Amino acid sequence: MTDDLLTEVTAFAETVLAPRAAEFDRTERLPREIITRMAELGLLGATVPERWGGLGLDPLAYGELTEVVGKACASTRALMTVHTSLVCQTLLELGSRRLKEKYLPDLARGTRLGCFALSEPGAGSDAAAVATTYLAKDDGFVLNGHKRWISFAGIADVFLVIATDNGVTSAFLVDRDTPGVVIRPMSGFLGNRATHIAEVLLTDVVVPGENLVSSVGAGFSFVVNTALFHGRYSIAWAGVALAQAALEQMCSYAAGREQFGSPIGDHQLVRRMVADALTSVTAARELCRRAGRLCAERSASAAMETNVAKYFSSTIAQRATADAVQVLGGNGCWSGYPAERLYREAKILEIIEGTSQLQQIMIADFAYQRYARKNKVAP
Amino acid sequence: MANTGVTDVPASIRGYLRANMTAFADVEFSDEDNIFEQGFVSSMFAMQLLHYIESTFDVEVPDDGITLKNFSSVSRMADLVARLRTATGD
Prior knowledge:
A: 54% helix, B: globular, Phosphopantetheine attachment site family protein (chain B)
């Protein structure tokens, strides 16, 4: 990544996004001019190779940009998570050449937006339980089903839809304007409020055969896991971003706010919160960098190390943002300061792209695989 | 780490699978056993196997090679590696 790009994105984040993040949150929409500017900066195709219209950034550079944007506005960062990480990365790795030619240049340039339609009323953590169906017909497929909580479905042009045919799960790219696609916007969320979350109803939606992503049956084992792997990497950096923002909030406030005749930052228990936030955000950032290096190497351990980074980062983001609210006291509970928004946004990270509980299960399995046999002790 | 010099591909794959199976039971499996159907690993592990195959044997699995079937047993994965090496002349 060039210094110029980092400087440009940082300026965009600090002078455009941060001052308007509360407005986006309140109005529950990300203005089109913000998305256009993100596209101009190359953020929507940041990891896509230049030959497909992207910037061709390595995972580490992309992660750093994710932190810069996420620190300023979580909903804007979420567009990178959904469009760039979940959709573009998955299409890049698993899409046929024909499918890449058809969609990837537009997606990378941001002239079309993508979203990831996995969740359903009955399929959350148990992603394999999707009830949306597909049937092979003529040279294509017919999809029927109901997706819910789909970030950016309200404005996306292309949906990466996961569906099943009697247990054989497959993935398809579905154009928004296909007959039978109905979008129902949703609102009232704790965080990610400006991510245009919507329900997607699919009724006898005919999808051409070439829009199958990877192969029949690869929907869960490869497509979902690839998408969530990239999504988790992005969320891990999002946690660093929120924790860093919380740290800066609590430091600047604690240095200026006086109680009992001295700045509250002088009080030992406030210092403890500041120290914990600084330590944990530093550790989380290093876990993200480690995951980024492994992703760049296409290491087989990249997925698990990314799970570790996502779990840790979202956990410490929740703690750091809660402490920021605590340090700001009454002002921390008021929307006139960013602390309460950071706190709400951090909670979302413990749920999306695999809850912390699911991460714990996978990480524990990994620990047993790595260490239990080696040190097996008879009772 | 890529190791194009790996000659005993099945042994390498077997070792990787063994290291990544449940630690609560010492499961024996043959090269022909379907590792997904037998429950030795979940289908979620397929993506990790793809990364393992590509990074260990320095091959690139083409789009049409990314099927659960190709990763379902030691033999099938070894065959996949052999086909890809032949195609690239390694």
